[in-house]
């Protein structure tokens, strides 16, 4: 093999290596689909790995309260569940202080990205909505920068139809960040039920400068 061929082989193997790294993302939210449900406290549902911080989180089933579009209309079984806002103006569940398990030097060098995605939605022509936030923290818990937020999916975006849309955002993790909070909020603006709804909350963290797509 001549030198040029060797260089090409090297470049090819590096390309494969880089590609593999860029797809090496880690999911850091547990039970983001709200399928693991451990019971009720004071009438509110308790989901494994999530903390009920405020309001009335409720485990709803697609079979009980169908939606017109969203994750369940993509071929999933109808006995799956989603997060519903209960009977109060504001409901929020959280997973706080989730460590980012990458070398701090990679984060501080700008080589780590974070992608947040979730299905968020609401009910008919009501303005009740859901949002999802990621707060960025340093090792001692101090906040860094601005929260990463997706949602709401508004009534207008849903065209007044009950359903959920998948939203996502990707950022380069700022220097100093070592852990994150994930917050799902459901807000009631009309009626007695809080019809904000959410499902499939995913937070992925990974190295490489490509591979997220958005
Ligand atoms: Ca689910």
SSE map:
Layout: H1 3-22, E1 26-27, E2 37-41, E3 44-47, E4 51-54, E5 58-61, E6 81-84, E7 90-99, H2 104-108, E8 112-122, E9 129-137, E10 148-150, H3 155-158, E11 163-172, E12 179-187, E13 197-207
Antiparallel strand pairs: 1-13, 2-3, 4-7, 5-6, 6-13, 7-12, 8-11, 8-13, 9-10, 9-12
What report would you give on this structure?
- The protein has 214 residues and is mainly β.
- It has one domain (27-205): Sandwich (Jelly Rolls).
- The chain is built from three helices and 13 strands; from the N terminus they run αβββββββαβββαβββ.
- The strands form three sheets. Strands 1, 5, 6, 8, 11 and 13 form a six-stranded antiparallel β-sheet that branches.
- It is globular, with a radius of gyration of 20 Å.
- The relative contact order is 0.24.
- Mean pLDDT is 88; it is low at 7-22.
- Bound molecules: calcium ion.
Distance between the termini: 40 Å
- As a whole number of angstroms, the C-alpha radius of gyration is 20 Å
Number of domains: 1
What share of the residues lie within helices? 10-25%
At the fold tier of CATH, the topology name is Jelly Rolls
Number of distinct helices: 3
- What general outline do the C-alpha atoms trace? globular
Main β-sheet description: 6 strands, antiparallel
Fourth-tier CATH superfamily name: Galactose-binding domain-like
**pLDDT averaged residue by residue:** 88
The H-and-E topology, N to C, reads as HEEEEEEEHEEEHEEE
List bound small molecules: calcium ion
Total count of strands: 13
Kindly name the structural category.
mainly beta
Which residues form runs of ≥5 with pLDDT under 50? Answer: 7-22
CATH architecture assignment name: Sandwich
Please write the CATH class name.
Answer: Mainly Beta
| Portion in strands | 35-45%
